[in-house]
Recover the amino acids of this structure.
């Protein structure tokens, strides 16, 4: 079942066509990746898929629902969740609160019940705290529930951001360069984490990544973009052999010289 | 007994009131000190209102006195129309004595009218909060501060030319309906509802917006909606504070609500600890009382006041209370260090033992 579909989307910033004619179809249980050199337009694609930018042409569908003109929070409510290249946590809140904040749009009490603490208030708060704790426990973050988010080590901050994204119970999870700035050990842990999310939750995962080894290890389907154009797509082995991809990454004559083989 | 222990914070609140009342009756606490306490209460409500907007939601407001002015004038109009000056009597309807302490209950209809006026002041201020909050959704930081600053000044200038509120001569003939009881009651109510707000999905959504608006949006928080809620809620509380102010001072002048008053509240908030309910209480109490305590050194008063402010900000950038919260508030949200009164003793004890170890 298709959870995230983009139908020939393009975006224009003034005279610059940042992304041209991009399409994607992400199903439940897929792990797909978007790769490309710096400035290729990967993050712009992500921002269009999550509603931060409105595509000038084409439409994004989440769970079959057209998201034309929708705000990012509506994308999340429709079943989409994302992380950021530069970590965006709620630094002045605790780890537990960071996760609890992601349940806001599903709370079942109104303003008056909140002020007077009647109705669903206590049961809802308890439910949310329990669910957040369960999620933190699942990803071994319980030791840090009372820490401020910015006091966590870098790798753990990444993990917390993913946990927070999962708290919205998405069907599609979009990870923007999750391995940026990580050391090889942390990357290994991250690969295991993404595999675990994939196996246990069965959701669709879309990754932007620079780290080739990691992409080749986990993605089933890869799209390569350069200067806003999709230059190649297919399985990891197809992409690796494609001359256009090698040209985009290494320059025009790299595959002819053969000195690095 | 267990029930008493569990609900002791709700028993302590009326006990504090009784203590102040008894001390006042026994002439230990004179009316001047009582007046200062009332002023602390009014400022406390204002600082809590600013804390919702600036501390929790991260929206800078330099026009909070504008909301206060709206609340003050609207409630004053309501009460002075319903209770004409010649009909107003501050005489007690019922007075009784327990031991040597006298209690007085003034006319019940008058108190109901006062509550009605306060509610009207709060609601109209909230409407203004909506009017100013909606167009400011796209503005951040300094730009928003300028818009709110302008709003406060516009309100003041409108009052200056409105005949029903006495133009720039000021408004007279407001019945003196507020007393320590009511101000104390509303201050406690404000603390209570602000705590409930902070410790709920609403408060968490606001804090998420403060910390990172884009991330808040992508985890499903309708940032525009919650910002407007924060504006309206904050303006409502400021309006209530304005009503208390009007019915304590009995006389209102538009210049009372100049931008300096707004900045005063910003200073109280930051000195106490922005984002913390306890910090707001402490900031309002300490900085309202400080000029009164310094009154004996007349000319040097403001110099010392300013100097202390500089020292507070230099040495305690997170505010006097450093983002802590009193344990009796029972807060779970906000990434807060809890302050237990028992910590104070253990802290003193620790200092002593360190000194002893040094010897």
């Amino acid at each position: 079942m298709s959870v995230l579909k983009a139908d020939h989307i393009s975006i224009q910033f003034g005279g610059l066509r940042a992304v041209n004619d991009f399409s994607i179809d992400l199903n439940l249980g897929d792990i797909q990746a978007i790769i490309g050199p710096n400035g290729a337009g990967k993050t712009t694609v992500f921002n269009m898929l999550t509603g931060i930018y409105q595509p000038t042409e084409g439409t994004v569908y989440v769970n079959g629902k057209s998201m034309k003109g929708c705000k990012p929070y509506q994308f999340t409510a429709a079943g989409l969740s994302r992380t950021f290249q530069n970590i965006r946590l709620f630094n002045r809140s605790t780890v537990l609160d960071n996760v609890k904040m992601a349940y806001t749009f599903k709370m079942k009490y109104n303003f008056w019940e909140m002020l007077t603490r009647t109705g669903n208030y206590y049961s809802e708060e308890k439910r949310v705290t329990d669910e957040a704790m369960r999620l933190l426990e699942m990803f071994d973050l319980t030791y840090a529930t009372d820490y401020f988010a910015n006091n966590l080590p870098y790798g753990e901050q990444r993990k917390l951001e993913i946990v927070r994204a999962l708290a919205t119970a998405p069907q599609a999870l979009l990870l923007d360069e999750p391995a940026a700035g990580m050391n090889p050990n942390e990357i290994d842990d991250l690969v295991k984490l993404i595999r675990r999310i994939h196996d246990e939750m069965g959701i669709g995962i879309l990754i932007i990544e620079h780290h080739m080894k990691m992409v080749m290890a986990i993605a089933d389907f890869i799209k390569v973009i350069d200067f806003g154009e999709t230059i190649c797509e297919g399985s990891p082995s197809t992409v690796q052999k494609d001359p256009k991809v090698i040209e985009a990454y290494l320059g025009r004559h790299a595959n002819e010289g053969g000195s690095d083989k | 007994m267990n029930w008493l222990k569990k609900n002791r914070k709700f028993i302590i609140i009326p006990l504090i009131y009784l203590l102040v009342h008894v001390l006042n009756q026994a002439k230990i606490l004179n009316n001047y000190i009582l007046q200062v306490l009332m002023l602390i209460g009014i400022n406390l409500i204002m600082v809590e209102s600013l804390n919702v907007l600036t501390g929790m939601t991260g929206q800078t407001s330099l026009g909070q006195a504008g909301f206060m002015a709206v609340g003050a004038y609207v409630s004053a109009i309501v009460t002075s129309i319903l209770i004409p000056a010649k009909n107003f009597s501050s005489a007690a309807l019922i007075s009784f004595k327990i031991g040597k302490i006298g209690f007085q209950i003034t006319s019940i209809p008058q108190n109901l009218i006062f509550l009605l006026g306060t509610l009207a002041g709060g609601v109209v201020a909230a409407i203004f909060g909506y009017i100013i909050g909606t167009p400011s959704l796209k503005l951040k930081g300094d730009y928003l501060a300028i818009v709110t600053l302008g709003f406060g000044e516009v309100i003041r200038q409108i009052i200056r030319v409105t005949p029903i509120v006495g133009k720039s001569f000021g408004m007279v003939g407001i019945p003196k309906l507020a007393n320590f009881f009511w101000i104390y009651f509303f201050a406690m109510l404000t603390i209570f509802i602000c705590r409930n707000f902070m410790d709920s999905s609403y408060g968490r959504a606001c804090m998420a917006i403060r910390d990172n608006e884009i991330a808040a949006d992508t985890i499903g928080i309708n940032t525009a909606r919650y910002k407007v809620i924060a504006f309206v809620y904050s303006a409502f509380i400021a309006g209530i504070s304005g009503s208390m102010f009007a019915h304590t001072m009995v006389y209102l002048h538009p210049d009372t609500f100049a931008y300096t008053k707004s900045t005063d509240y910003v200073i109280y908030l930051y000195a106490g600890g922005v984002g913390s309910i306890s910090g707001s209480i402490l900031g309002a109490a300490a900085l309202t009382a400080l000029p009164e305590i310094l009154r004996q050194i007349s000319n040097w008063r403001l110099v010392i006041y300013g100097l202390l402010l500089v020292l507070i900000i230099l040495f305690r950038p997170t505010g006097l209370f450093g983002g802590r919260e009193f344990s009796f508030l029972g807060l779970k949200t906000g990434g807060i260090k809890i302050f237990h009164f028992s910590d104070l003793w253990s802290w003193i004890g620790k200092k002593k033992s360190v000194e002893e170890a040094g010897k």
Summary: Chain A touches chain B at residues 50, 52, 71-73, 75-77, 81-82, 84, 88-94, 97, 100-107, 109, 111, 114-117, 121, 124-125, 128, 148, 164-165, 167-168 (CB under 8 Å).
